[in-house]
Design brief:
- This protein has 134 residues and is mostly helical.
- The chain has one domain.
- It is built from six helices and three strands.
- A three-stranded antiparallel sheet has the order 1-3-2, covered by helices on one side.
Length: 134
């Protein structure tokens, strides 16, 4: 487990330090052991929720961004009443019992968020590229 942790830290830091202009790394907010190993210029993650992009679910997704704007919501859903059956369904990730598929289910990504990333960050990067080329 320690080797996996070390590999994860190395991968994250390598991505952050990559010699490219714009970086977006998806990762939850880190615990103290990982934070202590991160580069000093690493900002706090920008947390977004799937329901901001049309998916009825709670799953805070952290984005560590370099030279990219924060992801803006596109199709925010009205949140269900707390403790209602609908609210419990939206919290499926946090309520998930241990199982063989738990990791796979918890790591699902949402098409609405992916579309927002492509539109917003792709459009921003293209605009910046055009400005730099001019």
């Amino acid at each position: 487990m320690k080797a996996e942790f070390e590999d994860g830290v190395d991968l994250f830091v390598s991505c952050w330090r990559a010699p490219i202009d714009r970086v977006a790394i998806e990762n939850p907010e880190m615990h103290d052991l990982a934070k202590a190993r991160m580069p000093k210029d690493l900002p706090r993650p920008r947390i977004v929720q799937p329901f901001w992009f049309g998916h009825p679910e709670y799953k805070g997704t952290g984005w560590y961004l370099k030279n990219l704007p924060s992801l803006q919501e596109t199709s925010r859903l009205r949140e269900p009443e707390k403790d209602s059956d609908n609210w419990k369904t939206w919290n499926r990730v946090w309520r998930m019992s241990p199982s063989a598929d738990r990791g796979k289910e918890r790591s699902r990504f949402f098409p609405g968020m992916a579309s927002a990333m492509a539109d917003q960050w792709g459009g921003y990067a293209f605009e910046q590229f055009q400005l730099e080329a001019a």
